[in-house]
Design brief:
Number of domains: 3
Number of helices: 23
Structural class: alpha+beta
Strand order of the largest sheet: 1-2-3-4-7-8-9-10
Protein name: HEAT repeat-containing protein
Helix content: 55-70%
Largest sheet: 8 strands, antiparallel
Number of strands: 10
Distance between the termini: 107 Å
Keywords: Signal
Radius of gyration: 37 Å
Length: 489
């Protein structure tokens, strides 16, 4: 296997290992991996990193201490920090080669080349071998990263730096270079391109989310770079990492309606009920969210299968000011396939008590209550809330009363009709309640409804009294019937 292949083995393992180790420069870290063909290990302790890989035939080891700067052609070591050290060894079928580069202090370094146990002249073989392996090494590890990043930045600004980032071998290394680049004073008009290129280059959810999350304020300094940032989150496949980045970004920066569209496009790809609800509720916690954006949140909430999390989002949206008819209609649509009577009616109750529903929305809500809420308890509670807090046209009132009269429970049906009886009622509305009450099959509860209407009936015309008498005829008990008829004498 070639030297280049070995470094690809190393870099791929660094990526896998560092998913669970946020930084390889911790005080002490040991990670190993093995397969049928190779064993790979990384050990980091007290500022020294050791990378080892073995196939049983070939061993390749790298040990680094301190800060290393490479030459502009990436083929030689230019400088080492005080006490810096680099050792590279490769053994094939027992034949060993090694390079040792060590700081002597005062900016001086010593380079040594070994074949087996024999120290050889540095030139030409040592220098040649280092020149062959170092270009791959600097692109598959963070060796010399700071100096290399500075070189590209000084030569061609942020464009040259991100171009080099795209050429690096592993996401771990790309993220490290991105961190170094974002520490610089990048001109605001270049930041959008930097964000776009970094997001495009890094495939790992972990490393991309880490770069984005750690640089939110800088990456979102301009509207253009904020757009690029939110678009970059669409590259993150992990529900967890995507939700963390979006949540933190929305908390730190006020998103425009156009940016919220991008946020919601990214969030809509989240499969987890919980993490999608986290993003949507975080967005709703912003001050000054426009009605257009609120409506889009409601539409996206339909992607949440969980009754609990979906209705949590809808309730939070309804508590915002400036709720439009369109949003209310979309809210009802979002509730259509909510299976829980409790969660569904809790949102209807919020709509009834906090929002003005026009007759069309009232009809939409009442129809859904009648067709999909199986619990008479929850259905009656919502119908009473609507009666107590909304104004009605005759048509929407009739629809609600009809649904109430068809409730299976005589008790709950009578509660709704008696609530309606306390309102200022038109002649037609009185007749609607009386007609609906005829569906109550309990003499006791039917009597309660009719008695509650008796004063209004006495002061109405003959058509209302006829409807009252027709409903009273449904009572089998002579005692209850007598009480009802006496009430309008």
């Amino acid at each position: 296997m070639t030297t280049q292949s070995w470094y690809r083995w190393i870099s791929s393992f660094i990526f896998l290992a560092s998913l669970s180790i946020p930084g390889l420069a911790q005080d002490e870290t040991t990670v190993s991996s093995s397969s049928d063909k190779s064993n790979i290990s990384i050990h980091s302790s007290n500022g020294v990193q050791r990378w080892k890989t073995s196939t049983g035939v070939t061993n390749f080891n790298v040990e680094i201490r301190g800060k290393i700067e490479v030459t502009d052609d990436d083929k030689d070591i230019k400088s080492l920090s005080e006490n810096g050290y680099l050792e590279i060894t490769k053994t094939v079928f027992g034949s060993k080669r090694a390079i040792v580069v060590e700081s002597l202090g005062g900016g001086k370094i010593k380079k040594e080349y070994y074949e087996g146990r024999n120290k050889m002249e540095w030139e030409p073989n040592g220098k040649t071998w280092l020149g062959e392996i170092l270009p791959e090494l600097v692109r598959t590890t963070t060796l010399g990263a700071e100096g290399r990043l500075n070189r590209f930045y000084n030569q061609g600004g942020s464009a040259a730096a991100v171009a080099e980032i795209t050429r690096l071998e592993s996401d771990y290394v790309k993220a490290h270079y991105a961190k170094l680049l974002l520490e610089k004073n990048i001109p605001p008009n270049e930041m959008a391109n930097v964000v776009t290129k970094i997001a495009s280059a890094i495939n790992s959810d972990y490393y991309l989310s880490t770069v984005l999350q750690n640089n939110i304020n800088k990456m979102m300094a301009t509207p253009e770079s904020a757009d690029a940032f939110f678009k970059g989150t669409q590259k993150i496949n992990s529900d967890y990492y995507k939700s963390v980045v979006l949540k933190e970004a929305l908390k730190k920066v006020s998103a425009s309606p156009a940016q919220i569209k991008v946020v919601l496009q990214s969030a809509a790809e989240i499969k987890s009920d919980y993490y999608l609800s986290v993003v949507l509720t975080t967005l709703l916690e912003e001050d000054g969210v426009k009605e257009e954006s609120l409506n889009e949140v409601v539409v996206v909430s339909k992607n949440i299968p969980s009754d609990y999390y979906r209705t949590q989002v809808l309730t939070k949206a309804l508590n915002k000011p400036g709720i439009s008819k369109v949003m209310l209609k979309n809210t009802v649509n979002a509730l259509a396939d909510v299976g829980s009577d409790y969660y569904k009616t809790s949102v209807f109750n919020t709509m009834a008590t906090r929002n003005n529903m026009d007759p069309e929305v009232q009809a939409q809500v009442v129809s859904l209550v009648g067709s999909s809420v199986e619990s008479d308890y929850y259905a009656s509670g919502t119908l009473k809330n609507i009666l107590e807090h909304q104004k009605f046209s005759d048509e929407s009132f009739k629809q609600l009363i009809t649904v109430a009269g068809n409730l299976g429970s005589s008790n709950y049906a009578s509660e709704v009709l008696r609530t309606a009886a306390r309102k200022d009622l038109s002649r037609n509305q009185l007749i609607d309640i009386l007609n609906a009450s005829a569906n109550i099959d309990s003499d006791h509860y039917l009597t309660e409804v009719l008695i509650s209407l008796s004063e209004k009936v006495k002061n109405s015309d003959s058509s209302v009294k006829d409807a009252y008498r027709a409903a009273a005829k449904k009572i089998d008990s002579e005692t209850y019937y007598g009480r009802v008829m006496k009430a309008i004498d």
